[in-house]
Amino acid sequence: MARLFDRPQRTWQRLQRRALLLVGLASAFLGAEADPGYYLVRPYAAAGKSSLDLRYWSVQTPGEAALLWPELGLRHGFSERWTSEILLSWIGHGWRSQKLSSLNWMNQWLLSSPDSEHELALHTQLIHNRGRHAGTALEIGPSWQGDWGLSRLNLNLLLEHDWARREGTQLKLQWQVSRPLQPGLRLGLQGFGELGRWNHWLPAARQSQRAGPMLHWVPEGQQGLSFNAAYLWGRTYGRRGDMFSAQLLLDF
């Protein structure tokens, strides 16, 4: 009788091991294909304001030339809850070899009250990729920000689906903890991760994660100007790759 019960148990254990192995192998490849998070999405509302959005980010893999992404965007707040932006992104291994990489349309809808201590927004980004991976992708998910004493916490969970690829919907994580150093200047830690398929995220969680110091600066008396920068160590596209990102926002 014991053998009758042991046989299905051993069969179930073998199936579990094989399933975990397949999921792990698939996640190692699929999780690395998701486009990396390179700037922190923050809840915001800027009714009636227009902003020039200048961005730059790069990935440096040991032994290889750095890959550079300069970007230019125009943002406008159409209401107290809806802000929209058009962003152009270039890519290349040098400034003379830059090519237009993608056209992006970003929207953010503030779900919480504009004067709430904890802000929650819905972020969407429609991406039209050009070149080798030409096609359309959509990124969507909640963006949260709240204060805990002097610390400011940010947490975003974003889903990305690229219709030109077969990986399915990918899950991405963004987080940040910062504290004020002086008026207008905040320092802290920032982290990103591409976790693979949304329903197979756990085995892929180690594939593409990185974290490091960040800085947020608003010059005194210049509320229409802000600067963000971060340098992150870890893995990008499933490989070792340090990442630097910077963003300058100028209201006009």
Instruction: Give the count of helical stretches.
Output: 2
N-to-C span = 80 Å
Strand order of the largest sheet: 1-2-3-4-5-6-7-8-9-10-11-13
Largest sheet: 12 strands, antiparallel, barrel
Q: Average pLDDT across residues?
A: 84
Which range best describes the helical content: under 10%, 10-25%, 25-40%, 40-55%, 55-70% or over 70%? 10-25%
Q: What value does the Rg take, in angstroms? A: 21 Å
Shape: globular
Q: Could you spell the SSE succession in H and E letters?
A: HEEEEEEEEEHEEEE
Topology:
Elements: H1 2-30, E1 50-60, E2 67-77, E3 82-91, E4 99-110, E5 118-129, E6 135-148, E7 151-162, E8 170-182, E9 185-197, H2 201-204, E10 208-217, E11 225-236, E12 239-240, E13 242-251
Antiparallel strand pairs: 1-2, 1-13, 2-3, 3-4, 4-5, 5-6, 6-7, 7-8, 8-9, 9-10, 10-11, 11-12, 11-13
Explained architecture:
The protein is built from two helices and 13 strands; from the N terminus they run αβββββββββαββββ. The protein has helices at residues 2-30, 201-204, and strands at residues 50-60, 67-77, 82-91, 99-110, 118-129, 135-148, 151-162, 170-182, 185-197, 208-217, 225-236, 239-240, 242-251. It has a twelve-stranded antiparallel beta barrel. The longest helix has 29 residues, at 2-30. It is globular and about 45 Å long. The termini are far apart. Residues 1-5 and 15-34 have low confidence and may be disordered.
